[in-house]
Amino acid sequence: MADETSPLTPATQWPIVWVALGAGIVAASHIGKLPPALPQISVEFEAGLVMSGWIASMISTMGFALGLVAGALADRIGLRRVLIFGLSMLVLGSLLGTFALSSNIMLLARFIEGLGFTATTISCGAIIARVTADSDRKWALGVWAAYMPIGFASMMMFAALILDSFGWRILWAISSAVSVIWIFVVLRVTAKWHRTQKQAVNRDSIPGNVTRCLANGGGVLVALCFGVYAAQHISMMNWLPTYMLEVYGASALFAATVPALVLAFNAGGNYLAAWAMGRGWPIWLLLVLGAGGMALTEVGIFSGALPDSLRLGLALVFGIAGGLIPAAALAASPVYAPTPALIGTMGGVVVMGSNTGQLFGPPALAAAREATGSWDGTFLLLLSMAIAGIIMAVLSRPMEIRASSLNP
Questions:
Q1: Which of 163, 270, 342, 397 fits 146 for a cystine, CB–CB 3.0-4.6 Å?
Q2: Which of the following CATH numbers is that of domain 14-406: 3.30.505.50, 3.30.565.10, 1.20.1250.20, 2.160.10.10?
Q3: CA 283: distance to chain centroid?
Q4: Which sequence spans correspond to the domains of the chain?
């Protein structure tokens, strides 16, 4: 039988929180290295627009396919083991990509990196939930959501400096080396904590734990809301450099700088959500505000009547509004988990939603671009996703109220 008592710590272990955040940033950097390099990779492998979209989204395939299993497995065999496994897969996938000779091999490399990304991010979120006190948990999980924009933006800027002089393969090799370093950091900082975690491991069957979490309608709605956000956000971030190169003839550095700025503002939105949750704001409200803000800014960004400077400003606001959603969604795992020992499994539900959006978003946007013949033709697709997010967030409200009353 599972341990129904809370395995959560009475006092926050901040060094482990920061190491887990660092691991998430390392994982996100494996996503962020691709957009600036995608034009070079597409030319070298003679990949069309849609194939390039699948290369961009393939890292999310494992999260889509195995997100639930990864979360349940982390609860079963231990979060630290799954984290180290995830970082190791990031190393392996990036090394394979370094020596890839075709688009098919690159797809396989990104698939392996996707396995590593999923295992790393699911286990890190659950670790943070485990090592934080009740009073710190929502704030810490809100800050944890910044791993994606920080890692993504940092690597995009670094990639822009590396690509012209050394090419994308050197970038992939550097990415592998950073992941190796972080494996040793995790092993050292979490060693003592790991020895105390036997009582926190769930012994129920993985299918049973997954079923219990999927039966929670509120958690599923949050995951779906996270998914439509991720589809919009990752599509904009992946294709914005290509868009700026094609439409404005921008340099590689400038084409990487603009989405990096959007991501920096996205991290600011993460912090705003963490601040708000620390003061009692409900998760569903932050999801509504985030999705609504994305919808409004998308209308302006794709409006040809507005000057370019104003559209750029709206893109930055898009980043802030969107940043509210991952922070709120990731903080939902402890709220909706059937027991504290299933936080990893519920985190798998939420992250699977995000990875589903990341998987299908870029190819869908590329298909819309090809069908309409213009990047502005992608507007209706993005707007419909934002509206769907608003609806699902509102529907989750009564379920969150009920779950919070059971898990104050």
A1: 270
A2: 1.20.1250.20
A3: 17
A4: 14-406
Instruction: Calculate the CA dihedral of residues 334, 336, 339, 343 and round it to 10 degrees.
Output: -40
pTM, 2 dp: 0.76
Count of C-beta atoms within a 10 Å radius of residue 180: 15
Q: Where are the alpha helices (DSSP H) in 33-146?
A: 34-45, 49-57, 61-77, 79-98, 103-131, 134-144
Beta-carbon count within 10 A of 271 CB:
17
Q: Are 342 and 202 in contact (CB under 8 A)?
A: yes
| pLDDT, tens digit, 9 for 90 and up, residues 116-160 | 988 898 889 889 988 888 888 888 888 888 898 889 888 988 887
Residue whose tokens read 């707007």: 383
Burial class for 82, CB neighbours closer than 10 Å (0-12, 13-18, 19+): buried
With beta carbons less than 8 A apart as the criterion, state whether 260 and 153 touch. Answer: yes
**Cβ(315)–Cβ(297) under 8 Å?**
yes
